[in-house]
Target: 2-deoxy-scyllo-inosamine dehydrogenase
Amino acid sequence: MSTGSAVVVEAPGEHRLTAHEPRRPDAGEALVRVHAVGICGSDREVYQGNRPEGYVRYPLTPGHEWSGTVAEVGAGVPAALVGRKVVGEGFRNCQVCDRCHAGETTLCTAGYEETGFTRPGAMATTLTLPARLLHVLPDGADLTAAALLEPAACVAAAAIKANARPGERVAVVGTGTLGMFATQFLRAGSPAELLVVGTRPDRAELSRSFGATDFRTRDQELPDDFDVVVETAGSASAATTAAALLRRGGRLVLTGIPAPGADGLDPTDLVVRQLEVHTVFGAAPDAWAHTVRVFGAGLLDPLPLVSHELPLDEFARAIELVGSGDPKVGKVLLRP
Model:
């Protein structure tokens, strides 16, 4: 396979575009030709140098949200994978600890390793990784849309934990990529009501297009009798807002990661109202499989969330766009 190019972040604030030599797959591995790679806040942290210690290893090719086509496989990997469209899990789990055996691979006790953070990521022409991490897409899948399935899988993990039943009243706090995916996942479960709460009135129309029956900003009057709430905002007060929307005995799933020192949930409130609280960090294999099924069934529409598609050499501009706070900036993709 011919060489291409790759983004390398040498150290915080320092990056270059380099020639990329595809790494031939070893036994158990696959080489994927990257179609598109998404940028999220954690990629910005990598570039700025404020990702927590132990969760990044420089120099690094970032990119943990990606889609592509299998070009080559190593020994022991089914040859039928070659030519298939795929997405892939990022967490490099050990597969032998108790948590891995329970299917909770994001809690692997062998320590943190993840594509695009401690291992080479997808901001390159190709990516070589363990084939067991791949999830095969339908042949007709749109690979640009599929590049967003990593954040969707994190939301799928939340949807599985929320266990919203048809006819329940559900709400989403947050209107970013995760919030819009949460809206689509919950809509697919036929809720009686689906409220989206955010800080930006300009997200009302998009929320409704994804199935919301009501949209409110956090400064408006909010109900307090919902069965299920999924929080995706990650702001200091989002968890409190989300909990306040619940009926007694309601179920709350937190996916946003606020800055350290954020005000937490009131334990008295949790106990007296008997709230059930779940949290999500990353996506285990069952959530990935669920996401690919839901996407394949046409129940997830990631494309309206994409606002920019740029070549690899515009990495710096892409990072700037992601942090700009401009309401016109949605999901930014790089196209190797």
